[in-house]
Specification:
The complex is a heterodimer of chains A (359) and B (505). Chain A is α+β, with helices and mostly antiparallel strands and 359 residues long. Chain A has helices at 5-18, 27-38, 66-71, 78-90, 109-117, 138-141, 166-180, 193-199, 204-217, 224-230, 330-333, 338-341; strands spanning 2-3, 43-46, 56-64, 96-99, 120-125, 149-152, 158-161, 183-188, 191-192, 201-202, 234-248, 259-267, 273-278, 282-287, 290-294, 298-303, 320-326. The termini of chain A are far apart. Chain B is α+β, with helices and mostly antiparallel strands. Chain B has helices spanning 5-9, 12-17, 63-74, 88-97, 108-137, 144-155, 228-265, 273-281, 303-316, 342-363, 375-393, 405-408, 410-417, 423-431, 441-450, 455-462, 466-480, 487-504; strands at residues 3-4, 18-22, 30-31, 33-38, 50-55, 79-82, 101-104, 159-163, 168-171, 187-191, 194-201, 211-218, 289-296, 322-325, 329-336, 366-369, 373-374, 402-404. The radius of gyration of chain B is 39 Å and the shape is elongated.
Chain lengths: 359, 505
């Protein structure tokens, strides 16, 4: 499936919706993608079924402070370095790349860099949405583990984490990021195509594109119910944000956790108070004190006028927004995997409240 | 017991330390339970009337505070008290749910304690009053007057003791006439400014209350309506116990007095030394002049229980008499040192008449009074006269069922003596031929003899024609084979008529 310049807007909208308020700013990645297309580069996404089952795919992505990514632009070598490092360490061939996380900027970056590396991009990822921690990636959730993993940061440092649990990898990567200037590129050990079905979310890039297209067909100043129907979700509320608060979140693995935030909006129609609990992503929606939606369903806050998703780090009081709930990737609704991404995995003491689930 | 949130906020510590952050529209919610909850545990089961006091380390920006507000509101709870400042969203939710969200600056457990004491106050007050009532009345016999005084001091409220007619015996005449004395159950009567509680004292084995205890609760004291009844029950039990003990005493006393009286009445000649001693022990003066009187009552009247009432009625009219329960009524007498003058006897009779009028209204008695007679033998004589007079009084509503032998005249007493077991059958036999015949011959004959054998007068009394009277008298003479001009026959028939008519009532 070729990606044209005309598709970039829909893909960007799709991945930012799936970011659920997180996943990083897609603007820079979209600019880079348009740049490649403008330079005549062919960008395509290859479906898993079209690949040889024996081909090897390297999951790649940008991790760390994605806000810094927009300021401290990539030098261009980071992806090449990280992929080379993991290839050298594992002594496997690399035939294609895939995204570690379709939600947010990592939904676009593999498309940008695949051409640079002379590889194709596989229509799959390891999250199916936006997720904040490496140990929540699908390969960790099914027990494959993350190690070995290679990290390359803009100033040239390269780190290979050869052994360790998923939690160890997450912890070590965060420690590395602190000393490395905010962000780095991650490349995980190559996965054979035949195994993707059991350890990755298949079809997520084309899914994001389709989602973005549908969202855009409703047009600017969308009718919210129509928009919710178009994207296969549910409108939770539309109203003005009254309050946004942030505080230190629960500690993770002995270090300070991500910041924990809450926002409250008043629904225009009924006066209902909708509260969203958030970290890097929107995690839980509470309507008049009753939980009504939660991770792993995708909770999206949209600018009510433009329909553009608003991420957790920029949401502020006074703006008019709509809150949508999109169904979780099927991968995560498996009861064995759900605990990796349900509210308690984020320190939110609440049972999951999902679309299509009883209760 | 419950109190509104607003009431809690008026408690001293709460007024000083607690602010209403949100949900002011719900301040009239009723609080029946104040519970400490350690953090907003998601599965804390909220219940109606509950005010949750959040204790322990807790971040008030936690979404679970919202969830708690909602759970408490859904369960019909009364509010949530926190320490600190919850975010705007939670305050807005409190307003939206109209559920008071309160912020306390004092230790939440101190606030909780103060609130709980308020809620428990009626129970504590009730327990205190019952304990005090038990201490005061529980372990010893107190006369009802003392119980009334003690209970009044205990409750700081007007307490009264009423008899079975609702008349005041002791205490403050608070709700006189309001107690429904014929309903032997605890009563709660609305007063314009409060409440009157009444509790019957019912001696065992009877269904009629003998006495009533009442407590008036006026103004703010009406709030103690749930506190007072248990103490009232304790006091009523004390009264009941006293009645019972009193009753035992009276029964014992009544039996010995009745026996002593019987011995005196059977006395033939001077009393023995032993009899004199028994009379002296009973406080009876056998010497001097006695005026006896007899108070008759229906067989259903409990003469032992009512004896005190009789003495009280007589005493109320200045008559200091010896009263003995005797048969269906009371036999009593007044003893004078010297022969009483006619004026003194008249005065005594007037007092007795007044006392009897009062007694009759309650107990339905009849009274006869004898003439003064001296010495022990005279006692029997005056009592015999009184007994006869009382028997006659029973059939004399026109005299208020009261007869004094002095006014009675001996003739009437003589007549009364005809009502004996031997005379009455003889009288019936004499008049038997007239029975069942047309013309009401017995009554016509009686009226004719009463009218001194005047046909005209008899006709006027009976309202018939005098020829009818003449014809009936003729038939009577014929049927009885008597001559009404014979004075002996006339007298015998006159007595017989009276006896039969009296007996037929």
């Amino acid at each position: 499936m070729r990606i044209n310049t005309a598709d970039v807007a829909a893909l960007e909208r799709g991945v930012s919706l799936l970011g659920s308020g997180g996943g990083g700013d897609t603007l820079t990645a979209a600019v880079l993608l348009r740049q490649r297309l403008a330079a005549g580069r062919s960008v395509s996404v290859t479906s898993v079924s079209a690949l040889d089952g024996r081909a090897w795919v390297v999951p790649v992505g940008v991790i760390g402070a994605t806000a810094v990514f927009a300021e401290k632009l990539p030098g261009g070598h980071e992806f090449r370095t990280a992929v080379a490092a993991i290839r050298r360490w594992t002594a496997r061939p690399v035939d294609a790349v895939m995204s570690i996380e379709v939600g947010g900027l990592n939904g676009l970056m593999p498309l940008v860099v695949a051409g640079d590396l002379g590889l194709s991009t596989v229509d799959a990822d390891l999250s199916g949405r936006g997720l904040p921690r490496l140990d929540q990636l699908s390969v960790a959730a099914v027990g494959r583990g993350l190690a070995p993993a290679a990290l390359a940061e803009p100033s040239g440092q390269v780190l290979v984490l050869a052994e360790g649990t998923s939690a160890d990898v997450e912890r070590a990567a965060r420690a590395f990021l602190t000393g490395a200037g905010g962000w780095a590129v991650l490349a995980l050990a190559p996965i054979q195509v035949s195994q993707l079905a059991e350890c990755a979310v298949i079809g997520s890039v084309s899914g994001a594109l389709e989602l973005g297209r549908r969202a855009l067909t409703v047009g600017p100043e969308p009718d919210l119910d129509e928009l919710a129907t178009a994207v296969g979700g549910r409108l939770l509320a539309a109203g003005r944000i009254l309050e946004v608060t942030w505080r230190a979140g629960p500690a993770q693995h002995g270090r300070t956790g991500f910041g924990r935030g809450s926002l409250t909006l008043r629904e225009h129609r009924a006066g209902t108070l909708l509260r969203l609990e958030m970290e890097n992503e929107y995690l839980l929606a509470v309507s008049d004190g009753v939980p009504v939606a939660s991770t792993p369903d995708v909770l999206v806050v949209l600018d009510r006028r433009t329909g553009v998703p608003i991420s957790c780090d920029v949401v502020r009081p006074g703006i008019e927004v709509a809150v949508l709930q999109l169904p979780a990737p099927v991968f995560w609704t498996d009861p064995a995997r759900l605990p990796v991404v349900w509210p308690r995995a984020f320190g939110v003491d609440c049972d999951p409240v999902l679309l299509g689930a009883p209760g | 017991m419950s109190a509104s949130v607003r009431r809690l906020l008026s408690l001293p510590d709460w007024a000083r330390e607690v602010r209403v952050l949100a949900g002011a529209d719900g301040l009239d919610r009723e609080v029946s339970l104040v519970r400490a909850v350690l953090g907003p545990a998601p599965r804390h089961p909220a219940v109606a009337g509950e005010l949750v006091v959040l204790v322990g380390e807790m971040f008030l920006g936690d979404w679970r505070l919202d969830a708690l507000l909602r759970r408490v509101a859904d369960a019909g709870g009364a509010g949530v008290l926190v320490s600190g400042e919850p975010p705007l969203g939670s305050r807005l939710l409190g307003d939206r749910l109209e559920l008071p969200l309160l912020a306390g600056t004092a230790d939440p457990l101190d606030l909780l304690t103060e609130a709980r004491l308020l809620l428990a106050a009626p129970d504590l007050d009730g327990a205190r009053v019952v304990m005090a009532a038990h201490r005061a009345f529980g372990d010893r016999l107190s006369p009802p007057d003392a119980v009334v005084t003690g209970l009044g001091e205990l409750l700081r409220a007007p307490v009264a003791l009423l008899d079975d007619n609702g008349d005041l015996l002791a205490g403050d005449a608070d709700g006189l006439g309001l107690v429904r004395v014929h309903e032997p159950v605890p009563q709660r009567i609305e007063l314009p400014d409060g409440l009157l509680l009444a509790h019957p004292a019912i001696p065992p084995g009877t269904s009629r209350p003998e006495l009533w205890l009442t407590v008036g609760l006026h103004g703010s004291a009406a709030a103690r309506a749930e506190v007072v009844p248990p103490a009232l029950v304790v006091a009523a039990d004390a009264v009941q116990r006293w009645l019972l003990a009193q009753r035992l005493e009276l029964e014992r006393d009544a039996r010995s007095r009745a026996a002593l009286l019987g011995d005196l009445l059977r006395l033939d000649g001077e009393p023995t030394a032993e009899l004199r001693r028994r009379a002296a022990d009973a406080g009876w003066r056998l010497g001097g002049w006695h005026v006896g009187f007899r108070i008759g009552a229906r067989a259903t009247v409990d003469t032992v229980a009512r004896g005190q009432e009789v003495i009280r009625s007589l005493g109320g009219h200045g008559v200091d008499a010896t009263v003995v329960e005797h048969g269906d009524g009371w036999t009593a007498w007044v003893t004078f040192g010297q022969e009483p003058t006619a004026e003194r006897v008249q005065e005594l009779a007037a007092r007795l008449r007044a006392a009897h009028r009062e007694l009759r209204a309650r107990v339905g008695t009849h009274m006869g009074v004898g003439r003064p007679h001296p010495r022990p033998a005279g006692l029997a004589a005056t009592l015999a006269e009184a007994t006869d007079a009382a028997r006659l009084a029973a059939t004399r509503p026109e005299t208020g069922h009261f007869l004094h032998v002095d006014q009675l005249g001996m003739a009437q007493l003589l007549l009364e003596w005809t009502r004996t077991d031997t005379f009455e059958p003889a009288a019936r036999t004499l008049l038997a031929p007239l029975a069942g015949l047309p013309g009401d011959l017995v009554r016509t004959l009686a009226a004719y003899l009463d009218a001194e054998s005047s046909i005209a007068e008899t006709a006027a009394v009976l309202g018939v024609h005098r020829n009818t009277v003449a014809a009936r008298i003729g038939r009577v003479e014929q049927l009885l084979a008597v001559d009404l001009h014979q004075r002996d026959e006339r007298l015998a028939l006159h007595l017989a008529c009276r006896t039969v008519i009296l007996a037929e009532g």
